[in-house]
Amino acid sequence: TWRGALYAHLNRFKRFPAGAGGGTAQVVFTIDRWGRVMAARLSGSSGDAAIDAEAVAMIRRASPVPAPPPTIGGGGASVTLAVPIRFNR
Questions:
Q1: Domain boundaries 2-87, corresponding CATH code
Q2: Tens digits of per-residue pLDDT, 17-29?
Q3: Which among 51, 57, 74, 86 is least surrounded, fewest beta carbons within 10 Å?
Q4: Position 75 pLDDT exceeds 80
Q5: What average pLDDT score do residues 64-70 get?
């Protein structure tokens, strides 16, 4: 599925921050129809500032992501997604 391909793509850009304890940060991001990341922000903290910053940075580094199919996002010019980014030791 497209969502599976998206998660696999994002995970290739994940870097565990030195000294971080782990956790899950929730990130909301917007992509255009070509998969370019237009905006990314933290929407739920992991409780670790380094993890939170890396989760947002990872989304930006991963641009462009797999382009969404026309059935995702109602056919608009952009798609906004919320994803959990899990960092485990």
A1: 3.30.1150.10
A2: 998 888 999 999 9
A3: 74
A4: no
A5: 95
